[in-house]
Amino acid sequence: MSTSVATYRPHSNARSLAPADAYDRSVRRRVGITWSLLVLNVLTFVPHESVFPIPSAAGKAITQAALPAALLVALTLNRRLLIRPNVFLCLVTLLAIEAIVTCFTAQYLRSAGYRTFRLVEFVAVLWLLSPYWGRRDLLLVRCHLKAMAVVLGSVLVGLMLGPGRARPEGRLSGAIWPIPATQVAHYAAVTLGLVVVLWLGGHRRGRATMLTVVVTGIILIMTHTRTALVGLIVGLLIAGLSMIVVKTRVRKLFAIGGAVVLIAVTTLSNIIISWLTRGESGEQLTSLTGRTKFWGPLLAFPRDRFQEIFGFGLSNDSFNGQAIDSNWLTSYQDQGLFGVVVCAVILLFLFILAYLQPSGVRRAIALFLITYCLMASFTEVGFTNASTYLLDLTLAASLLVPSAVKMTQYED
């Protein structure tokens, strides 16, 4: 028996998403855009170092405009201004509030006020993203890895287009977007560490992990940056130890890694020492490449009681025209003893919170990032200002909260 009514059947390749799935896809996309804009905002722009004629004003305008753009996207993502209360962002907010207070007493009110306004914007975006912390799909970690892949990819393309500009003084830096070697090393080390920890936790395939490790490892070595290398090694050691009891893969990696290190030390010691010293004299090594020469005068600079406790206001991380290159001394200079204590409390709180978490990949990633930032804080800056290190710590804090309740309402 046949029917004269033809039944409509959709095309086999046509797929429709349920409203909840479509909303989640939109959320993931906008979170990724917001996080990428934050990464763009903290990229350092070095004038006249690009293979393309990018004016200095244009380069700085792009990075600075990325922050208000991130705020706008975050507002479309979180229209009801929902926040997830957490101690970490409260501590960061304390730094922003203290910066507001001290900027009115700063010698250069305009520049300090502008940096304070940027820090407040930055913290506001982090608060707007807080409802999406604790997701089981590690959304923020994946967004960070994608952003790092774009940045490191531009470094490799710049190396091919302009080898001379990409390796000034023999250290790999960005030649398309002019990024200094130390920052390139930071991105490479964090990317390598995150990928290895994800693989140890069974969240990545072996071939893709190996390819990423090789590429980022080569980039890291070409930057000749010791801080990033030490931070990577210590961070992976702490992260691996946190999973060594529950993951056979971790125990095997530690055994293989120990054997490789032993062989390398016994056979390639001269090459390793040459790479680590970078041709510097003993005096340069003991002074951390001249960094400590400016630390003494900074600590001896006369301060009144208010300046000793709350600092001079946010600056460009320099003292008498020289880069300070230490998060703790920069915090003391800009935000006084108050800033130093808050930075220490942030790290201590995250370590304690990680210790209280069950063993797993989320805890391991957080421990890697916290340890890396701690090791880098002695010769790098960034906890008290909008920076990549503050993003790293935010990423760690987002992994140490319980999984958020799934949002059931969505917006058109």
What attributes does this structure have?
412 residues; mainly alpha; two-stranded antiparallel sheet; 66% helix; 1% strand; globular; disordered N terminus; disordered C terminus
Query: Which structural class do the helices and strands define?
Result: mainly alpha
Mean pLDDT: 85
When the domains are counted, the total is 1
N- and C-termini, Cα separation: 46 Å
Strand residue content? under 5%
Strand order of the largest sheet: 1-2
Helical segment count = 17
Largest sheet: 2 strands, antiparallel
Helix content: 55-70%
Task: Give the radius of gyration.
Answer: 23 Å
Q: Explain this structure to me?
A:
There is one protein chain. With 412 residues, the chain is mostly helical. The chain has one domain. 66% of the residues lie in helices and 1% in strands. The protein contains 17 helices and two strands. The protein has a two-stranded antiparallel sheet. The radius of gyration is 23 Å and the shape is globular. 41% of the residues are buried. The N terminus and C terminus are likely disordered.
How are the elements arranged and paired?
Layout: H1 19-42, H2 56-77, H3 87-103, H4 109-129, H5 139-161, H6 163-166, H7 181-200, H8 206-223, H9 226-243, H10 248-267, H11 269-277, H12 282-286, H13 292-300, H14 305-310, E1 318-319, E2 322-323, H15 327-355, H16 361-376, H17 388-399
Antiparallel strand pairs: 1-2
Please provide a brief summary of the model.
The chain is mainly α and 412 residues long. The protein has helices at 19-42, 56-77, 87-103, 109-129, 139-161, 163-166, 181-200, 206-223, 226-243, 248-267, 269-277, 282-286, 292-300, 305-310, 327-355, 361-376, 388-399, and strands at residues 318-319, 322-323.
